[in-house]
TrEMBL record, chain A:
Compartments (UniProt record): Cell membrane
Domain ABC transmembrane type-1: 56-236
Record's protein name: ABC transporter permease subunit
Organism expressing this protein natively: Roseibium sediminicola
Membrane topology (UniProt): Multi-pass membrane protein
Family indicated by similarity: Belongs to the binding-protein-dependent transport system permease family.
TrEMBL record, chain B:
PANTHER family linked: ALIPHATIC SULFONATES IMPORT ATP-BINDING PROTEIN SSUB, TAURINE IMPORT ATP-BINDING PROTEIN-RELATED
Lineage, opening ranks: Bacteria, Pseudomonadati, Pseudomonadota, Alphaproteobacteria, Hyphomicrobiales
Recorded family membership: Belongs to the ABC transporter superfamily.
Nucleotide-binding in keyword set: yes
The name this protein goes by in its record: ABC transporter ATP-binding protein
Record GO terms (molecular function): ATP binding
InterPro entries found in the cross-reference section: AAA+_ATPase, ABC_transporter-like_ATP-bd, ABC_transporter-like_CS, ABC_transporter_ATP-bind, P-loop_NTPase
Signal peptide: none
Domain of life: Bacteria
Cross-referenced SUPFAM superfamilies: P-loop containing nucleoside triphosphate hydrolases
Record organism: Roseibium sediminicola
Length: 252, 258
């Protein structure tokens, strides 16, 4: 299949779903499922009225703090775990626990510890993305070809310099992939956490569930999806631009 | 004794869990003369790569010594006048040709402008002018190995260690690169320790051939190659060349049966 074939099928799939949605929406009515023709009007209203985007970007800013912390701590930790057995033995059980635990289950505990403000949201987002970032860096570091490390040793490059010159560049595509996985989970966790404490974008979504029409709710979901997909693509594009040699290894 | 590089009773075993360790290199001694081209010839799996890794200090030796101009460099990792060319090229995929060749110079702390001049000189020497900005994935296997040569030569090693550098290349490319290696060796005045499993390659390139018997690897025969230099493809069909090839094959065969 060529690119244009794939694009055609993508677009057709979306068009068919929209038509089915429209039919279903007209049958059950807007209080259960607003049809796309109704949603589009509400969406544009919300967009120009300004609250939707302001809340969304406000939430995303807080999310970025938790996600940034997860990257700053998680990437070097994962890389060290992949290269040094002792570090791995110390941290792996904790990382595994964090990855398998549902963040929603942690939310009540975190509310007790951190309250319902900024710290709570940052902590939830951190925990949601941290494990993915660490484990991707870990597997990347484990998989580095020992021959390439030997080349550096053969040129009498010391361990610290070898880390900077060989391990980190070899790891780069994995760090990008980990960041993309982590970002998606961070955004999900952000919305979930905000629904618990009824603030920010998650709070907006939760409250719109009480309204008579589902059109605002669907509009909020569409904006959220659009922003997530955009953020994910920007990271992927950045990775491919900075590391063209790894294009084949990068997940799309 | 004017050995450039001397290997004295080198030994290396690898543990194998509960089984007895495999003794890969055993009591290996060898003198490599200054500016000589010495081939180490042995079948696959006989421990040639292990031997080179010991010499380059990438693996610690169990016993024995490595002396460079009489100076003990046993278990010193890399550097110390040694430059290594690897079988699978092992270039850094995130570095351009120029940056790959500069790698060893960066490690030595050579200033940027000087580094670049030296790198360009060797890129030119291996015939890769115009490809300075290319990345390894944009180069053919033969070109990648030329970068591998240039990277090793750039640090001006006294002894060039080469681990089957043409083993991963097609026959035509290999023949071309063999000739270029001889040219470079004559221009650059280097001592070369060249590991190969190809009898023909060893005879064509080397002054002397150390034929290795396996398990553990040690020098079984030392053979002088009588051909004049500079050498040309024509000697490969010389009756003396064919006779030598036959003779060495007999030695290797008896080793393989052990
Ligand atoms: N790190 C290692 N651990 C265990 N065994 C090894 C290791 N390196 C090499 N060997 C063994 O040593 C033998 C010789 O290997 P090698 O030096 O690569 O041979 P060659 O280069 O002549 O083909 C092989 O049997 C191989 O399995
Ligand atoms: Mg080998």
């Amino acid at each position: 299949m060529t690119r244009s074939h794939i694009l055609f099928l993508n677009v057709s799939g979306i068009a068919v779903s929209l038509v089915l949605w429209e039919i279903a929406g007209r049958i059950v009515g807007p209080s259960l499922l607003a049809a796309p023709s109704v949603v589009i009007g509400t969406f544009l209203d919300l967009l120009f009225q300004g609250d939707m985007l302001r809340e969304l970007f406000g939430s995303l800013r807080q999310m970025l703090v938790g996600f940034g912390l997860a990257c700053i701590i998680g990437m070097p930790l994962g890389a060290l775990m992949g290269r040094i057995r002792l570090v791995d033995a110390l941290f792996h059980p904790w990382v595994s626990m964090v990855v398998v635990t549902s963040v929603a289950a942690l939310a009540p505990l975190f509310i007790l510890i951190f309250g319902t403000g900024f710290e709570f949201r940052v902590a939830i987002v951190f925990v949601a993305s941290f494990g993915y970032i660490v484990l991707t860096a870990f597997h990347g570091a484990r998989g580095i070809d020992p021959k390439i490390v030997d080349v550096a040793r053969s040129f009498a490059v010391g361990p610290f310099e070898s880390y900077r010159q060989v391990i980190l560049p070899a790891l780069f595509p994995y760090l990008i992939t980990g960041a993309r996985l982590g970002l998606i989970h961070a955004i999900r966790a952000m919305v979930m956490a905000e629904m618990f404490v009824l603030v920010g974008y998650g709070g907006l979504i939760f409250q719109s569930g009480q309204e008579l029409s589902t059109a605002p709710l669907i509009s909020y979901l569409v904006s959220l999806m659009a922003v997530s997909i955009l953020a994910n693509s920007v990271l992927g594009w950045t990775g491919r631009r900075l590391a063209p040699w790894y294009d084949s290894k990068m997940s799309r | 004794m004017n050995a450039k590089l001397e290997l004295r009773n080198l030994s290396k075993s690898f543990p194998r869990g509960k089984a007895d360790p495999i003794h890969v290199v055993g009591d290996f001694s060898l003198h490599i003369k200054n500016l000589e081209f010495l081939a180490v010839l042995g079948p696959s799996g006989c421990g040639k790569s292990t031997l080179l890794r010991l010499i380059d200090g990438l693996l610690p030796a169990d016993h024995g010594h490595i002396l460079m101009d009489g100076r003990d460099i046993t278990n010193v990792t890399g550097g110390e006048g040694r430059g290594m060319v690897f079988q699978s090229f092992d270039l850094f995929p995130w570095r351009s040709t120029l940056k790959n060749v500069e790698f060893g110079l960066e490690a030595q702390g050579v200033a940027r402008a000087e580094r670049e001049d030296i790198a360009r000189h060797y890129i030119n020497l291996v015939g890769l002018s115009g490809f300075e900005a290319s990345y390894p994935h944009e180069l053919s296997g033969g070109m990648q190995q030329r970068v591998g040569f240039a990277r090793a030569l750039a640090i001006k090693p006294e002894v060039l260690l080469m681990d089957e550098p043409f083993g991963a290349l097609d026959v035509q490319t290999r023949d071309i690169l063999q000739n270029e290696l001889l040219d470079i060796w004559e221009k650059e005045q280097k001592t070369v320790l060249f590991v190969t499993h190809s009898i023909e390659e060893a005879i064509y390139l080397a002054d002397r051939i150390a034929v290795i018997s396996p398990r553990p690897a040690k020098v079984d025969h030392m053979i002088e190659v009588p051909f004049e230099r500079p050498r040309h493809e024509a000697i490969k069909s010389d009756p003396k060349f064919l006779e030598m090839r036959q003779e060495i094959w007999q030695i290797l065969k008896s080793g393989v049966q052990v």
